[in-house]
Design a protein that fits this description.
mainly alpha; MetI-like fold; elongated
């Protein structure tokens, strides 16, 4: 393909990114979602610096201390302590590491595999496409929660296992979206023009089709990150995610469920963290959809 055409493709991608940033500045919801994601990432990366206490340190004398706004509470343990005297705030901060690792790691695996297989199946078609579609439909026919729980119960408790489970079981979602978009694009005029001038298939896939998938896959990725945080918390609550001693939001909710009426902050605080993280990522996904997908952009009057 000629250099001007390649520059035009790059210019289109650059234009979408610029429009995305402008849309973010004009979107309170998108800005709030980005702020939540940055805060979540900062907590995970800087946990040893920002956490006021060791999340595993026990202080039985301070067990079940209330948060600072309650009678008997203090700023020493701002969000209170659990039944073993561990600081709830510090455990929430360190728990962000588990949630973010599962969300980013799982989506990265699912996005990579779904993109590769979806591109090949959608563009080339044939027997491989039929096989991929059949296998994909078979996996999607199984209830996702049940599938994740069964696999997690078999492979055992480990952060690596949880990331791998979510990454592999979420491939069908990304594959279906990728294949559907490729089927709509492969007979487009610009793809036909690229074939006519002898552009190699590999270049058509990665230089022409993939840039047009940034919008829908970026949106899907943020929504799936939110879902994975919720599912990981659910697995932790059932004792099927990371070991119970590891600070995670699901483990914290599970640890406080028997004393919810007496010491509600033990479970409520991590529950609020899950809600805020999920809401922030969903708002960020809405911004991706509106800013990067040209089909959802409003045409000025």
């Amino acid at each position: 393909m000629s250099a001007p055409a390649i520059d035009a493709d790059r210019g289109e991608v650059s234009g979408r990114v610029s429009r995305g940033w402008r849309a973010l500045l004009r979107s309170p919801g998108g800005a709030a979602g980005a702020l939540v994601f940055v805060a979540l990432t900062s907590m995970a990366v800087l946990a040893p610096l920002v956490a006021p206490h060791d999340p595993l340190q026990q202080n039985l004398r301070a067990a079940n201390s209330p948060p600072f706004w309650s009678d008997g509470g203090s700023w020493t343990y701002a969000l209170g302590t659990d039944s073993l005297g561990r600081d709830v705030l510090s455990r929430i901060i360190y728990g962000a590491r588990v949630s973010l690792a599962v969300a980013i790691g799982g989506v990265a695996i699912a996005l990579t595999l779904g993109l590769v297989f979806g591109l090949i199946a959608g563009y080339f078609g044939g027997r491989f496409d039929r096989f991929i579609v059949s296998a994909n439909d078979l996996v999607l026919s199984v209830p996702y929660t049940l599938l994740v729980i069964v696999i997690a119960a078999v492979v055992g408790n480990s952060l690596f296992n949880v990331i791998l489970i979510f990454g592999i079981t979420d491939v069908p979602v990304f594959l279906r979206v990728t294949r559907g978009e490729v089927l709509k694009l492969r007979d487009s005029t610009f793809i036909e023009a690229a074939r006519a001038v002898g552009v190699p298939r590999r270049r058509i896939l990665w230089a022409h089709l993939v840039p047009n998938l940034v919008g829908p896959l970026g949106t899907l990725a943020t929504f799936e990150m939110s879902s994975m945080i919720l599912y990981e918390a659910g697995l932790s609550f059932l004792g099927l995610s990371v070991p119970p001693s590891t600070p995670s939001w699901g483990n914290m909710i599970s640890a406080g469920r028997d004393s919810l009426e007496v010491y509600p902050w033990i479970s409520i605080a991590p529950g609020v963290a899950i809600i805020v993280a999920g809401l922030g990522l969903n708002l960020l996904g809405d911004w991706f959809r509106d800013a990067l997908d040209p089909r959802t952009r409003r045409v000025p009057r």
